Amino acid sequence: MSGHRVRAITRRLLQGFRRDRRTLALLFVAPIVILGLLGYLMRGSTSSPSVGIANEDSGPLGVMVADALRHSSHITTTDISAADGDAGLKDGSLVAYIVLPSDFSRQAQNGNVAPEVHLEGSQPGVDAPVLQALQQAMIALASQVAGRNVTFQPQIKYLYGGKSYDTLDYFGAAFVGLVVFFLVFVITIVSFLNERSQGTLERLMASPLRRGEIVLGYMLGFTVIALVQAAEVLIFSLAVLKIQNQGSVFLIFGMEALMAIAAVNLGIFLSMFARSEFQAVQFIPLVVVPQILLSGIIFPVSTEPKALQYLSDVLPLTYAVNGMRDIMVKGADLTWSSLQLDAGVVAGFCVVLIAAGTATLRRRLG
Amino acid sequence: MTDSYAVDVEGVSKSFGAFKALNGVNLRVRQGEIYGLLGPNGAGKTTLIRLICGLLAAHAGTVTVLGQRMPNVAVLRHIGYMTQQAALYPALSVEENVSFFAAINGADEGVKDALELVELYDRRGSVVATLSGGLRQRCSLACALVHRPELLLLDEPTVGIDPQLRVQFWESFRRMAANGTTIIVSSHVMDEADRCQRLGLIQYGRLLAEGSPADIRAQGGSQNLEEAFLALAGRKAS
Question: Across chain B, where does the E strand assignment appear?
Fold first, then answer.
């Protein structure tokens, strides 16, 4: 063991970093971006799930419970009629609605209340605050009904998903798409970087190949790989993990193909900004982690702080994840306007990224 | 010799930032000629070659190749370019590499001939990553000439190649030139320079001297080509 030789290796590493400013910047910028985002997401959340309240109680207690719900910090409420509730869940303006039945006050006097709770059900994490708010309103109610113990039995109904769904069913739908997106992104950025660094890109540029042909060829090649991977992921998810799927397997495949195309072109585009594989690896947390945090996989977009919602709205993954959940949890088909929007936006991103990837090649031509 | 020039470079300048890589270079190469570009490292040889095949655009002056102003995608079909580093796909076999470059140039039928020319036909199944530097260089040459280009640009093609193979390389270059292929080859090996029909000495981005090896010897005042070059380079630089 020679301290001198060990020091030589250590010094060599640090000298390399001194020249590689970009890696250095990413090394120090990436963790702050990611942690800052996470902190803002979890602490800065001002918006809460929007819940409809339909008070049909003819007695006095319904008004009181509705009022307690209105003042709950867990949810944002609007008054609706029970008949409009399902429409609100479907168009996404509500994540839940609570119906206090016409005999609610009498139920309370008899010591057993059963408000109806209708949950949209496709997004994990929003059900808990709704039930929590209701629980607290019930505690307030119990103190008003003197001399009796009031038991509380909410009737929970799901529009999508339901009791048989667990966390994996919700996350699985999103992750099936996510896994393919990121793996394809990583192999593209690395292989395109190789194409630059081993000099073959220069050769391609000196051949009659057009830039669009290069980008298209790459896209087809990696989409084939992505689809094989998608098939494997899907079979494993459905057959082994038994993730529930309400929709068409072909639609899931179509969505994954779109995501793969977007990922390939994102990779080509970003490889322009990396000079080495080392730098390309640094891009991964910076591109991948914020998208995972902001695309609604873990935290529903509707409960994010407003500023972050705008950011979520411009990320392709937000639409892709939403589309995958629409298909797998809600059983959406192409007649659904929400799925049309999601697929359309992801396809639009593909077009923009193809143009950006092609333009990237042009710029290097000097 | 006819007066039709395969390559006509007129008053070309190219800078990278503050660095002037080429400064008012004029160069004319006739069809079927083997022209040697000589000069020290960093003199501008590679930049000139990249300008001729349209990978770079000149800041001033014009580059005309086979009668067309460059950059021009249509002309690229008739140009073969062998880069300094053996730019190949390491995960593919020799034959797969050559077939790929044949396909993108629309010349799928030339693969076998190209492999035989560089004597790699027996090694066609070998994966490039497992080859030695010299074998890679041969494979790279096969990729550059598989589509039988009218103009072959070779950027230091014989670096890392043993003397015996170098002789074979030059024999095939001469054969191709005799069949009408124009070849521009950059080098800093003087015994190679002697095999060219005409030479151009580049230094500090300028074409310092031009002529047949005999002319260069006369201009430099030495029977030794290397000494003649050093004399010419020293005279112009001072």
Answer: 5-16, 19-30, 34-38, 60-65, 68-69, 79-82, 151-155, 182-187, 198-203, 206-211
Distance from CA of B156 to the nearest CA of A (A): 15
Helical residues (DSSP H) of chain A, grouped into ranges: 3-19, 21-43, 61-70, 85-91, 104-109, 127-144, 167-197, 200-205, 211-235, 249-271, 277-294, 306-313, 316-328, 337-364
Q: Of the candidates B69, B29, B75, B67, which has an alpha carbon nearest to the alpha carbon of residue B186?
A: B29
Parallel/antiparallel/unpaired status of strands A96-100 and A50-55: parallel
Looking at the complex, report in whole angstroms how far the Cα of residue A207 sits from the nearest Cα belonging to chain B.
5
Q: What letter would DSSP give residue A161? A: S
Element (H, E) at B137: helix B133-145
> How many domains does chain A contain in total?
2
Residue A151 maps to which CATH number? 3.40.1710.10
Domain that holds residue B177: 33-39+75-237
Q: How far apart are CA B106 and CA B110, in angstroms?
A: 10
Contact B207, B25 (CB under 8 A): yes
ipTM above 0.90, yes or no: no
List residues in chain A touching B: CB distance below 8 A. 198-200, 202-210, 365-366
Last residue of a domain, one of A158, A191, A215: A158
CB B184 within 8 A of CB B49: yes
**pTM for the predicted model, two decimal places:** 0.77
- Give buried/exposed letters for A30-54 (b at 16+ CB in 10 A, else e): beeebeebeeebeeeeeebbbbbbb
Per-residue pLDDT reduced to its tens digit, B111-128: 999 999 888 999 999 999
Q: Is the peptide bond before B157 cis (omega within 30 degrees of 0)?
A: no
Instruction: Mark whether A132 and A198 lie in a shared domain.
Output: no
Query: What tokens does A12 get?
Result: 């060599």
pLDDT digits (tens, 9 = 90+) for B163-189: 888 888 888 899 999 999 999 999 877
For residue B101, which phi and psi values (nearest 5 degrees)? -70, -30
- Chain-chain contact of A206 with B101 (C-beta, under 8 angstroms): no
Is A28:A20 a contact under the CB 8 Å cutoff? no
- Tell whether A138 and A175 lie within a shared domain: no
- Which of B89, B97, B155 to probe the A interface (max A CBs under 10 A)? B89
Q: Are A37 and A294 in contact (CB under 8 A)?
A: yes
